[in-house]
Write a structure and sequence with these properties.
Blueprint: H1 3-16, H2 26-46, H3 52-61, H4 63-73, H5 85-102, H6 105-118, H7 133-147, H8 151-163, H9 171-184, H10 188-201, H11 205-216, E1 248-253, E2 257-262, E3 271-275, E4 279-282, E5 302-303, E6 311-312, H12 315-323, H13 326-329, H14 333-339, H15 343-353, H16 356-365, H17 384-403, H18 419-438, E7 439-447, E8 454-463, E9 478-483, E10 486-491, H19 514-524, H20 532-535, E11 550-552, E12 561-563, H21 581-602, H22 606-623, E13 624-625, H23 629-644, E14 649-650
């Protein structure tokens, strides 16, 4: 790959962190501003600016481009998918026919979901369903959810239907349905109360008889699946980084920058980090399938009271979002998508909308002290064009905030920002820089159709301030997975005190050749990887000889290696001639543990599989050195087991 091609690829990667979609108006907006200013202005006046504060000020104060910027930003307006009672009614009636005649529960549930999302709140449109479109859609969907044994979801629909004005004539049946939900959830006392209310309200004698029979049979209960427990940090919390373990500490060196190293002996399976996101955003393509707030796969969508473009998995997620960030983003969602802005840019906006104006202004005053604003920006490596485009994106997002009343008492026709608005724009510009290198994709684990393996699909993007401090290695020493939206890092091998605790930014040596890894890392993250796998040019997994193995010299503090089958003679490092019989026995035992782990995994006994793989990896790394085919397979299987313990989705 030529240097010119690498530079072009880096430019493509960089541009996609601003506008990821082929269609969208932001880049055209930026191109026009650049054309208006001209190359001379860009390479002289703008290039001389050395801080974010002055960059933001410049595009709004410098007369040469101020007029162009403000004129274009005037076009930012409310744009979102509005509620429509008639569409909701049509979807509901369609779903009712599918449920009654086709008996296709999944299809009916999906279309009922569309009816729920498009329905306005009660009495908004009294010409359709008497203003009760949402209540009726929820009421009818609850029947499908009960048959699907989604008892908690059905109960939520019933409670919402009641809140949305479900007519009194349905109340006896409503309490009957609630009782069945509580039975399915194992809450017998609540079921009995609901049955009693249903019996009192019911006037039909045949239905009363059916009710009494159902009460007598209430012992037959469907239990929900047990949710996996949240992992616990090994060794207690770090004093400075509460989401991390005491077993690690932060170190800073000129070559490696800030990075975590082992503070004590770490073994395979030790949980070193469990961290909630500082802010997170669902990727636009999953707006119909995953919750806008927690990113879980949706069974029965709950909508925003104002727009129809997003969905939540529950009323609790809806309330969290609508009380914070979504009350600002709601009416510009389609405008944001239409701009083509990347999800990274949306994440920068979410960091503002999530916290609100007052808190953001306080963060602006203290940004030099806050960990989130100390993340790497690589600002010294950016050119003037990159800074201009990011400054314009910050200005665009600021304008979006202006038109949705983020700033109290704002005249939304006034584009030129106030002092407070300039401070928010400056925060946005800073965030656009460090999110480029410090965001994590939140992965959804999915079983393949044969249910033998698990693959991960990115559904959201988030920033985790502590997780961002782990350096990259093409053979990382931790496994990363997600428990809900929390990032979890678990040691995948033994790590000695002082050794770096490494993460992986995507390119793994087992799957990607060195040249391709280097190109990806230099283009996406702007650094040259010098991990052991790159320096020694380890082969990818499929090219490792399955009989190849290396044993460590057992002499204290020696870093010598013996390559099998040649285990006799002197060590080239220390000159000793050690006996490696015990190491050979442990190598065999570690491979036996890997086989045991695989068998347990195939039987879906993930707890014992994890223990077997962990024991085998601990054995290997005490006596052996990578690369080693069976060990790297075991590392992959170990991660698969952690993922399979979660609620995976069939792909």
């Amino acid at each position: 790959m030529s240097k010119t091609q690498d530079d072009q690829y880096k430019t493509i990667c960089n541009t996609k962190t601003l506008q990821s979609q082929q269609r969208g108006f932001f880049l055209e907006f930026a191109h026009q501003i650049l054309k208006a200013g001209g190359d001379e202005w860009l390479n002289t006046a703008f290039d001389k600016i050395k801080n974010d504060h002055d960059r933001i000020q410049h595009i709004f104060k410098e007369h040469e481009i101020k007029t162009y910027v403000c004129e274009m930003l005037k076009h930012v307006t409310h744009l979102y998918r509005q509620k429509n009672a008639k569409i909701s009614q049509d979807r509901r009636l369609q779903a009712e026919k599918i449920y009654e005649f086709e008996k296709d529960l999944q299809k009916a549930n999906m279309i009922f979901g569309q009816a729920v999302l498009r329905a306005p709140s009660k009495e908004v449109d009294i010409h359709v369903d008497g203003g009760l479109s949402l209540a009726f859609a929820l009421w009818k969907r609850s029947d499908v959810l009960l048959e699907l044994k989604e008892y908690a979801k059905a109960l939520s629909d019933l409670q919402l239907a009641l809140k949305e004005g479900l007519p009194a004539k349905h109340k006896a049946e409503l309490y009957w349905k609630m009782a069945r939900c509580y039975m399915g959830m194992g809450e017998l006392k609540k079921a009995e109360v609901s049955y009693t209310l249903a019996e009192k309200l019911e006037t039909d004698n045949d239905k009363k008889t059916a009710l009494k029979k159902e009460i007598q049979e209430k012992s037959n209960i469907d239990q929900n699946l047990k949710k996996p427990e949240e992992p616990k940090i090994k060794g207690g919390s770090n004093k400075k980084y509460k989401n991390a373990s005491k077993l690690i500490r932060l170190l800073e060196t000129p070559k490696l920058g800030r990075h975590f190293v082992a503070n004590a002996d770490i073994e395979t399976g030790d949980t070193l980090l469990v961290e909630e996101p500082y802010a997170a955003c669902l990727m636009p393509e999953y707006a119909g399938s995953n919750c806008h707030n927690c990113f879980k796969r949706i069974v029965a969508p709950v909508g925003c009271p104002q727009c129809s473009g997003i969905a939540f998995c529950s009323t609790s997620c809806q309330e969290i979002a609508c009380k914070t960030y979504h009350k600002y983003e709601c009416k510009i969602m389609d405008f944001l998508i239409g701009s083509g802005m990347s999800v990274l840019c949306h994440l920068a906006l979410r960091m503002i909308t999530k916290h609100g104006l007052e808190q953001c202004l306080e963060m602006y005053k203290n940004k030099d002290k806050l960990p989130i604003y100390k993340l790497c920006t690589l600002s010294k490596q950016r050119d003037s064009k990159d800074f201009l485009y990011r400054t314009l994106m910050a200005a665009f997002m600021l304008r979006c905030l202006q038109v949705v009343d983020f700033f109290p008492n704002k005249n939304i026709n006034e584009v030129e920002p106030t002092t407070n608005e300039l401070q928010i724009a400056e925060l946005l510009l800073l965030q656009l820089q460090f999110l480029q290198f410090n965001a994590h994709e939140i992965m959804e684990p999915r079983e393949t159709v044969n249910k033998q393996t698990v693959k991960e699909q990115p559904v959201a993007i988030a920033v985790y301030p502590t997780a961002s401090l782990f350096n990259h290695d093409c053979h990382p020493s931790v496994i990363r997975y997600f428990h809900d939206n929390k990032i979890v890092l678990v040691a995948s091998r033994i790590i000695k005190p002082g050794e770096m605790v490494s993460e992986n930014y995507g390119p793994m040596f087992t799957r990607m050749p060195k040249e391709q890894r280097s190109r990806n890392l230099e283009s996406r993250y702007w650094f040259k990887c010098e991990c052991q796998a790159c320096i020694l040019a380890w082969p990818i997994l499929s090219e490792i000889d399955d009989s190849f193995a290396q044993l460590k010299c057992p002499t204290l503090n020696c870093t010598g290696i013996f390559i099998l089958p040649d285990v006799s003679g002197k060590c080239r490092k220390c000159g000793n001639e050690p006996n490696l019989d015990d190491a050979l026995i442990q190598l065999t035992e570690s491979e036996n543990k890997y086989r045991q782990g695989y068998d347990f995994m195939m039987e879906k006994d993930f707890e014992n599989a994890i223990k077997a793989f962990t024991d085998g990896l601990n054995m290997f790394y005490k006596i052996g050195a990578p690369p080693h085919m069976e060990t790297h397979k075991a590392e992959d299987y170990l991660k698969t087991c952690y993922l399979r313990q979660l609620n995976t989705i069939v792909a």
